[in-house]
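Example 394.
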Amino acid sequence: MSIVKEVTRNIYSVGAIDWDRRLFDELIPLPDGTSYNAYIVQGSEKTALLDTVDPPMAEILMSNLAELKLGTIDYVVIQHAEQDHSGTLPQILERYPEAKVIATAKCKGMVMDFLAVAEEKIITVADGERLSLGDKTLEFFYTPWVHWPETMVTYVQEDQLLFSCDFFGSHIASSDLFVTDQAKVYEAAKRYFAEIMMPFRTIIRKNLTKLHPLDIAMIAPSHGAIYDKPDFILDAYEDWVSDKVKNEVVLPYASMHGSTKMMVNYLVRALMKQDVSVRLFNLPQTDIGELAMALVDAATIVIGSPTVFVGPHPSAVYAAYLANALKPKAKFASVVGSYGWGTKMVEQLAGMLPNLQVEILDPVVAKGLPKAADYQALDTLADTIAAKHRELKL
Ligand code: FEO
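Predicted structure in complex with MU-OXO-diiron:
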């Protein structure tokens, strides 16, 4: 569902709201649905469409464009080749055959590969290149790895408006064109950053710096609401991509017969006594988006796992895989858990985190029920974590 809305003079939102979608990439939970935003920029001489929509929503985009009675579209700017934004391009080109596609050189190849668009339809633009639409000018800035290598953003100088595609986006289905609830959008945008942007944190930091010279009055992403007061999301991104960590332990765990859970609960209490915040996730019941979000700024990750076939519980393997793939900025990591007759759980979990720049703190592994010595070791682990955090002045 969606209707045409004017963003500012001669710039229109023409995308689609996906209220019902609950999973992205058959992996990422979407508790609040999402939207695939596309925009028309109508200059005095030329008209550009910025991005398209996910193919199942193609009819909505087509009918929104028809409602605007544009006559012609001169350019379709594809800022990112992933199909939730580029997927309706073939239908657009069929309906508006005179349109040329504007893309980075990398994006051009992807559009040809993924959507079978003819090479001669695509004009590549250089970083910083401008395209005049008459009384509006599009300026393209390469912003690689938000979150694919070909991504760029588009700035309309006359309106101080930045079209950012996935960059600054949030998965929220809403009838509101602009952000109305900053706290809710902050959470959704952080979740989105955690799920797909976090592995490219240092490159994104450079991309943010690149945007500093621009006067940005508005940011129009391709998921979620438009930021008409963009400072809060720009500040949030600066924080998320920084090296600053919080006095926080993320503790994803699974427990089969209760021993690991007893240890985890004991560790949580010990950390709380030391004023260390804990984010606890019972893995078999966890929304992985929430776990990813918690990884954005925690100083320490502790994985709790029982032993299954001598190795870690598959849920703990998933958590370790996720943490390794997302490359959070955590400084310390450890493992707690239990075993029945033999275990290589710690070695296997620790070996699954090669991407993390963490100091591994002494793990605590109990045989069966945790005993006095195990609780003492958990106290020591809590003391060590608290001391390490204090050293970082957290
Ligand atoms: Fe929203 Fe990377 O596509």
